[in-house]
Design goal:
alpha+beta, 19 helices
């Protein structure tokens, strides 16, 4: 990867060596080896070399320059296979004049590479074939049309620069998105997730904390702010050990201020991220919330309302099969909030929508009965407390004065879970919202979460085998910008006529092979390609493509 001058202190003397860092497939990360031993600084000074460190640093710089020049792929090294599916993303970057604003960084930074070329190339590579940075450089970038003009070391250096100021680059894209596509920010949505890293030790950024995927490895947190169409308009990263509940309000406020969002932000989330402080803070700031609430944790009077048959409306399909039932109410509900060390009870006016799903009820009851049976079996065999796992909630452990605890089935817990199986309660500050809109907004949480899904699966944002905080942030910046451009293409160019999966299938699959005189389009024919070809008036369905036609595709303008 790169050469560097290593200094080691031993018995009062400073020993120098030129070491080389390189990517280790075994460690899935950076490793180091000695390239050249140089002896001690003191010995060199005695030999008449006044500044050995500066002297050998020049040798290191020379070695890195030679390596950089050797690392730039030559035309002869480029595979005949070419990825072309990224051209809509390229067209969007050019439409929004992103290069103009990225190039301003050249005025205050002495880059030995083109920062915009590096940024755009990494976006395109992430879209067409997500993989490690090492594979990206050696296997994907050479298969984009044209050659790249930066080395692998420069790629990592550039990625670190992007990550160090990732919020500035997000701001560039947000401002230009506003200028050309006018996102609807009258109502925005916020959600968060985290990514785990396959490392054993924590560092200042990757910390062990509550993982969405129940992983024990260190994680980093990521919050997304999206417009009414769930187009990303802001991202914030934070250490994984920071609890999301108290952090949410700060992240939302920062993102709204940074991107000049004045409309209401509705925090849509599952039951894991709601708390009284966040709810009260949202109301105070003129924002709103919509989340699910555990029916089992409700006060007795509200549980009674849940189980009352009165007031339910049925929703059925065309065949008459019951899909779900619902009823709602608007009232003031108490919340306990801590202020200046004292607990206060405040009342907030909310709308609550209760739904009952028979198919979900059947599924839940099956799971409950399965765990109950497991608990009975373990109880009969006098199993240890640690062996029960989740089934432990259906038994009672009674301590017998220092002796072995007695175990009995918790009938009350079993009955309660069976009784409330299939019920879900949605709570919102938006009291004027129609019941159907509340239901659809919450169940469209998948669209918000889809942005995370794109990062985690479509863009393979994890596992990440990068070491430095700046390069990790740079990596997620690339993922975020790729999601943003895909979303703009989906909603603003294609007017939401096609799904995310259809679009990414096209971006990945549309490639050609260079023949003797022409390019051969090996892409599988789909309705999407035919419709896109017709809409953009491009020869996407041709078997043979000339150099001129390839350029017309890659230079297409929206």
């Amino acid at each position: 990867m790169a050469y560097y001058l290593k200094k080691t202190k031993l018995k009062g003397r400073t020993y120098l060596s030129i070491d080389e860092s390189f990517y280790s497939h075994e460690k899935h990360g950076t490793a180091h080896k000695c390239f050249k031993s140089l002896g001690s600084v003191e010995t060199w000074i005695e030999k008449g070399l006044p500044d050995p460190i500066a002297h050998f640093q020049k040798e290191v710089d020379s070695l890195n320059m030679e390596k950089a020049q050797a690392g730039v792929p030559k035309i002869s090294q480029i595979s005949p296979l070419l990825f072309l599916g990224y051209f809509p993303l390229k067209a969007l970057l050019e439409k929004m004049h992103i290069q103009k604003y990225v190039d301003y960084f050249k005025l205050t930074n002495d880059f030995s590479f083109d920062l915009y070329e590096l940024l755009s190339s990494l976006i395109f590579a992430r879209a067409v074939h997500p993989c490690s940075k090492y594979k990206t450089f050696h296997e994907v970038l050479p298969n984009l049309y044209g050659s790249i003009h930066f080395s692998y070391d420069q790629l990592l250096h550039g990625l670190a620069f992007l990550g160090n100021d990732y919020e500035k680059f997000i701001e560039i894209f947000t401002v230009q998105t506003n200028a050309f596509f006018k996102p609807d920010t009258s109502k925005t949505y916020f959600d968060c997730t985290n990514f785990y890293f396959e490392i054993d030790r924590e560092d200042d950024f990757r910390k062990k904390g509550p993982s969405k995927e129940n992983k024990k490895e260190p994680i980093v947190g990521l919050g997304l702010l999206l417009d009414s169409n769930q187009i990303p308009i802001g991202m914030k990263m934070y250490p994984g050990n920071e609890s999301e509940k108290p952090l949410l309000r700060d992240v939302i406020d920062q993102l709204k201020a940074q991107h000049n969002i004045t409309g209401k932000t509705v925090h849509v989330a599952d039951k894991g991220l709601n708390c009284a402080k966040n709810i009260a803070s949202s109301k105070k700031n003129g924002d709103g919330y919509l989340f699910s609430k555990s029916v089992k944790s409700l006060p007795k009077t509200e549980k009674t309302w849940v189980l009352l048959e009165e007031g339910f409306m049925d929703v059925r399909n065309k065949e008459g099969t019951l899909l779900y039932r619902y009823k709602s109410c608007v009232d003031s509900f108490p919340y306990k909030v801590e202020h200046e060390g004292r607990e206060h009870v405040i009342k907030l006016r909310e709308k609550r929508l209760l739904t009952y799903n028979p198919s979900l009820a059947a599924k839940k009851k099956y799971e409950i009965n399965r765990m109950v049976e497991k608990a009975r079996t373990l109880t009969a065999s006098q199993a240890k407390r640690t062996e029960y796992g989740e089934a432990g909630k259906y038994v009672k452990f009674t301590d017998r004065s220092g002796k072995k605890a007695s175990v009995s089935m918790n009938r009350e817990a079993i009955d309660q879970d069976l009784k409330f199986a299939g019920y879900n309660l949605l709570v919102t500050s938006e009291t004027e919202m129609k019941d159907s809109d509340i239901y659809n907004t919450y169940h469209n949480l998948w669209r918000i979460e889809e942005s995370f899904k794109i990062m985690k699966s479509d863009l393979d944002a994890r596992p990440v085998f990068l070491q430095k905080e700046e390069t990790i942030k740079g990596h997620f910046l690339i993922c975020y910008l790729t999601v943003l451009l895909e979303r703009l293409f989906q909603f603003k160019i294609l007017e939401n006529e096609y799904s995310t999966s259809e679009i990414f299938d096209f971006i990945r699959d549309f490639k050609v092979v260079k023949g003797e005189n022409k390019y051969i389009n090996t892409t599988k024919s789909t309705n999407f390609i035919y419709e896109l070809s017709r809409k953009l008036k491009l020869p996407l369905t041709n078997y043979y493509l000339t150099e001129t036609q390839i350029k017309s595709i890659l230079n297409h303008r929206f």
